[in-house]
Amino acid sequence: MKVAMVTGGGSGMGRSVCLHLAQRGDAVAVVDRDADAAEHVAEEIRSAGGTAAALETDVSDRAQVDETVAKIRADLGPIGVLVTSAGISGFTPFMEITTEAFEQMLAVNLTGTFHCVQSAIPDMIDSGWGRIVLVSSSSAQRGGPGMAHYASSKGGVFALTKSLALEFAPLGITVNNIAPSSIETPMHAGARAAGKLSSVEEASARMPVKRLGTGDDIAAAALFLVSDEASYFTGQTMGVNGGSYI
Ligand SMILES: NC(=O)c1ccc[n+]([C@@H]2O[C@H](COP(=O)([O-])OP(=O)(O)OC[C@H]3O[C@@H](n4cnc5c(N)ncnc54)[C@H](O)[C@@H]3O)[C@@H](O)[C@H]2O)c1
C-alpha cells in the first residue's frame, strides 16, 4: 500500500486514476480546487472499501499546496506516488492571448506542477522510493492553432519531466509524463460544447483507433508508471493518444 496524491482528482482522468489506485490498495489523497468534486470521488472510494481523503487546493498557490501535503502526511502517511492531472485549457487566437491569460495558464499547468513535486518529493527522498507522473498533452508535441498558451505550459511539463528524472533517478524516484490526446472528460466535452472541437463522431473517425480515449486509458498507463515494475522507466513520455501522434 502506498500513499498517492492525485491533483485534479475530482474530475476526468484524475478521477479515474484515483479510483484505479484505490482499487490496487493505495490510500488516495484526492486534491482539487473543486471541493465538492474531490469529496465526491473520495466518498466513491470509501464506499467501495478503500481509503481516501479529499483536499480542496488550488495548485497554483504554493501555501495551499504545502498545507495540503502536510495534511496528507499527517492523516494518510508519507507520499510515495504523485500524479498531477490538475489543469486548465483554452483556445484563443494567438494575437488575442493577454499576458494575464498566458500567465494564468503557466501558473496552473506548469508552476502548479512544480509546486506539487517540490512539496511532495521530500517524502520520496526520505524513503528512497517514489513514482511521479505528470500529465502533459499531445498539443506540446504537435502544437495547435489557438493553443499557444496551453501548449507552452505543457511543453514546460515535458522539460520538467526530463530534468527531474535525471536529478532524482539515483534516489529511487522515477518521473514520467503522460501526453494524452482526445480523452472524453468534462474538459473535452466543455471544449466541444464551446465549438472548439469537432463532434465525437467526427473526432473518432479521424482517430487511428476509431474512438476517443477514456479516463481508464489514462489510468492504465499511470498504474504501470507508478508500479514497482516500472523502475527502469524514467524521463519518458507515454503518448496515450489512440495513435494520433506517433
Ligand atoms: N481531455 C483531454 O483530451 C486532454 C488532452 C490532453 C491533456 N489533458 C490534460 O489532462 C489533465 C486532466 O484533464 P481532464 O480532461 O481530466 O480535465 P477535467 O477538467 O475533467 O479535470 C481537471 C481537474 O483539474 C482541476 N483543476 C483545475 N485547475 C486547478 C487548480 N488550479 N488547482 C487544483 N485543481 C485544479 C479541476 O477542478 C478538475 O477537477 C489536464 O492537465 C489537461 O490539460 C487533457
UniProtKB/TrEMBL annotation:
Transmembrane segments: none annotated. InterPro entries: KR_dom, NAD(P)-bd_dom_sf, Sc_DH/Rdtase_CS, SDR, SDR_fam. SUPFAM superfamilies: NAD(P)-binding Rossmann-fold domains. It is an enzyme of class 1 (oxidoreductase). Keywords: Oxidoreductase. Its EC number is 1.1.1.-. PROSITE patterns: ADH_SHORT (PS00061). Residues 2-181 form the Ketoreductase domain. Pfam families: adh_short_C2. It comes from the Bacteria. Belongs to the short-chain dehydrogenases/reductases (SDR) family. This is 2-hydroxycyclohexanecarboxyl-CoA dehydrogenase. It comes from Pseudonocardia parietis.
